[in-house]
Design goal:
The chain is an alpha+beta fold. It has 11 helices and 6 strands.
Length: 361
């Protein structure tokens, strides 16, 4: 009598073979067993993330935008050098948008603001200093001043639009009026700083061209005297090839000195104009306004980060517990099925996820 083999039991697709060496079944079982721990830590992380935003002081952001005015493409000195065949770079790095973006957070620009007074929404009279507004820490005056500069630089954010070259300066402050006034003061400081720098550069250029102009004037006079003396001594020089060649050489020297003198004279006059010019070097296309609403606390982002950190901590704890406990390979499949059944039951009653798990009992 032949005995028929028992029918094979169909295995569900989510029940992998526990005997497979590389199976992830033990890991999945461990995480299912720690589902309540993961849920509690994720919820705690989300709550802590939201609370960190709520306990922080409200801030207000004021924004302004401007375009730097580029100087003439070729400076006077570059044009002068071109007369001698010398190529000089025509770009002015001090007028690039990236330069202005770095300038608004530089200590040299921010130091004059430390002694200025700003009136906030609740300020009276002439306003308060930045030290009164921000209350920097430090045991000495030097430390407080240094910390105040660092905090002021952190409040400022400057970005550059690559396509248009527009520089946007945003100031974040604990008071809306303070943010607007700080942003306006920064624009004024940018103008003052660049006007002084441009006038100083023009002054140096004027002094150089003035000295060079005097030297070229002497050389021109000498060349003209040589040519005059030659013409007076050789009235019939055109009849002699040697004398005609010498006359052409002297004439070329006079023409060269005249061109050089004319270029230097123009550069000298332009430098004098630049030295006293007080026109703005930036074009403001958006002036800062008093912000009507405070900045977002980013509660959703903080909650998501808290959930992620909570889950990471829960997985770490669960894996540590599983490594200490361990299970025989023959019991892995049964443990998986039991954990899966518990998960289905918890999904039907979600509030159970916040209760105590079996492992913690």
């Amino acid at each position: 009598m032949t005995h028929s083999a028992p029918p094979a039991v169909a295995r569900a697709p989510w029940d992998p073979e526990p005997e497979t060496p590389d199976s992830l079944l033990p890991l999945a079982t461990t995480l299912l067993r720690a589902r309540r721990l993961l849920a509690r830590l994720a919820l705690a992380g989300a709550v802590l993330g939201v609370l960190t935003g709520l306990v922080q002081k409200r801030t207000y952001s004021a924004s302004a935008a401007f375009i730097p005015q580029s100087r003439r493409a070729n400076s006077n000195l570059a044009g002068l050098a071109a007369q001698f065949g010398i190529a000089m770079p025509t770009g002015d790095a001090s007028q690039s948008p990236a330069f202005f973006a770095d300038l608004v957070t530089s200590p040299e620009l921010l130091k004059p603001l430390l002694s200025a007074r700003f009136g906030g929404a609740d300020a009276k009279g002439s306003g308060r200093t930045l030290e009164s507004w921000l209350e920097p820490r430090g045991s000495t005056e030097a430390l407080r001043r240094e910390n105040l500069l660092k905090r002021l630089a952190d409040m400022i954010n400057a970005t550059v639009a690559q396509k248009t070259g527009v520089v946007r300066v945003t100031v974040k402050a604990p008071d809306p009026v303070l943010a607007q006034q700080l942003d306006s003061a920064l624009l004024d400081r940018v103008n003052v700083f660049n006007l002084e720098a441009r006038q100083s550069q023009a002054g140096s250029e004027r002094r150089f061209t003035e000295d060079r102009l005097a030297q070229v004037r002497v050389s021109l006079n000498v060349s003209e005297d040589r040519l005059r003396s030659f013409l007076e001594s050789n009235r019939d020089y055109q009849q002699s090839p040697t004398l005609r060649f010498q006359e052409e050489r002297l004439n070329r020297e006079v023409l060269l000195q005249q061109q050089l003198y004319t270029t230097l004279a123009q550069a000298y006059e332009q430098a004098k104009i630049e030295e006293v010019r007080d026109t703005p070097v930036i074009t403001v296309i958006e002036r800062p306004a008093v912000p009507a609403r405070p900045d977002s606390r980013k509660s959703i982002l903080r909650a998501v980060i808290g959930i992620f950190l909570g889950l990471l901590a829960g997985v770490t704890i669960a894996l540590a517990r599983a490594a200490d406990r361990g299970l025989p390979r023959t019991e892995v499949a049964a443990d998986w099925r039991a954990a899966r059944a518990d998960l289905v039951a918890d999904l039907r009653r979600p509030w159970r996820l916040l209760g105590r798990s079996r492992e913690s009992r």
